Amino acid sequence: MVPLLFLCLAMGVVYGVKKFLQIDHAIPKDKKSASGVPLAPTKKVKEIFPEEPDENSFESLTENTKTEALPVGTPAMPAISGTNEEAPPEPQSIDGGIPALKLLEDFLAMKSLDERMPHLESKRTEADLASSILNTSLPEVTKISVDIRETNSVEQMVDYYYLVDFTAEGGGINPQTMLVRIRGTSPPKVVVDPFLDLYGGRFAKYASAPVKEAGTFQVIITAGAFCYDDVPGSDKKMTLKIQAREDTKEIAKAYFGKRSKIGDMLQDETSGLGYGQAKACSVFMRWNMEEDPRNPFLEALDITSLNWNP
Description:
By secondary structure, this protein is of the alpha+beta class. 26% of the residues lie in helices and 26% in strands. The N and C termini lie far apart (129 Å).
């Protein structure tokens, strides 16, 4: 019985192996997974649900963005930039310094107001200009160098400040600061009001003796944190040096209170005015004859502009 039972079991094993091999050979290799398990057929499913392109594929994107060709002569649509307004043209700030310097050289070599008038910018009357140094030959210029350039995109202006050395009487030089301005795409012009205030002597004349009238002057200033001069209430005042150029002897000194408009500007780091920094400014000042009538002093009331805008 034992041999007979063993024989039956062996025959069963052989029959099972044979069946397995028949099934394995009946399934195509491309329909089996890596583990040997048959894969479900997919042909009929694809026939019922045809494959659609991925919406993110290149073919789908190009198909969705196709447009019909416009007739010949149809103007192209402008690009959308977020606003319907055109950007204003940039001022001539890159190479504008070349014509600005050339104009200044020619301007200083001219001999009359008639020659200079088309090339200057001023708030003064023509009669006032005619009686100024602009209506005559100027001393020889020994050197012109660029100081700084300031760009105002809002007003479409570029300001070129130049350091100009005039020959002085008796030898030596008379150092000055001059401004050439370019507005938009217009040709450059010399801003002459600061030049007349400084080189022309308007401020020096005002500072030489007390007068009742107040005035605004376009000058170079350097602010000091203390007052060491003999003026009323010096311990509560600060000093403003009025100069024609940075690092030169002041033409005169003006004074202002620590608790004043200018004092507040110096305390504000965002104001653009700092201690010991030379700055081209428009300064409103007067002669103070009230605090001590026997000792009047020049008082700076306000800085109306941190540049030389006419």
